[in-house]
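Need Polygalacturonase-like's 3D structure for a figure. Predict it.
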Amino acid sequence: MANNISFPCTIVLFFIVFYLINSSNAMLSFNVQRYGARGDGRTDATEPFLTAWTLACGSRARAMVYIPRGTYLVRNLVFWGPCKNIITFKIDGKLVAPENYWSIGSSGYWILFAKVNRISVIGGTIDARGAGYWSCRKKGGHCPQGARSISFSWCDNVLLSGLTSLYSQTIHVTIHHSSNVRIQNIRIRAPSGSPNTDGIIVQASSGVTISGGVIGTGDDCIALNQGSKNIWIERLNCGPGHGIRTQNGVRIKTWARPSNGFVKNVYFRNLVMRNVQNPVIIDQNYCPNGKGCPNQSSGVKISGVTYSNIKGTSLTPIAMKLECSGSNHCTGIILKNINLNYRRRSSASYCKNAHGRASGVMIPRNCM
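Structure prediction for Polygalacturonase-like:
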């Protein structure tokens, strides 16, 4: 009799514990269509997106902003944090900017996540319709500063996965003053002639991993700017563009002017170049148009850079160019197993103020 009485009580107790555990992990969904967004590509959905974000960000439970299939016209979107719990921004549709490039171009940002921690942006396509803006720039007309397509500023624990970014006015993805950022399986596309359409720019950030994807732009594939540290990049296809780069394969460039900065402990390894103009390059005499730095020397100290297992073809005879500062020579450069050919022949190298060592196969020859 005692067993018959306690058995249903055990079931009830188990159900209560199971309910409490699952309710604590429940995710609330905020569908932008519920707040008036229409996926017709014509109706302005900016306010419904911001409303969904405000409610999701203020939720004490895990929350998701959901963008279903369809095309959504949105102007500048600034998603402010901090939020009260983990938040997911799930895109099954496509976001497009207004055709008038002034609509987003004067603010500098199109989609911005600011001071948001524990944020995942998953899937979808964003199209900034940058062609009109590029045309204005090329004509030298009166143009706005241009908008970056999607940016994360002062954010921690970020995942950006499966996003396709098309035709940004300027930079496609920016990571600024953020940490613990993972970007994976991203696709970025802009014509090779589009000005300053960098793929990904990282600045003043740490713990950034970029893995998997295809990036083709009119400027840098990935650029690591001042204050970047603990960056890992792997399994990327870059081109067209300037590279990490494709005009340039792996490039470190510094302005030819005084500085207290440094670049150290950088590893380039397991790379394939296909008809790249400058496969391996250090350029410490960067001074476009001779403005702001003529006849000066770079103050940036470069040390501990390793190039390992790099092979393929160069579009120019000089496949490796290490041109370092006259006042701050490059030190600790390591070359290992470099095999770069020019028109089915051995390529050449050029070194200036570069110091280090080489081992293994060396085509072109070590010039340090």
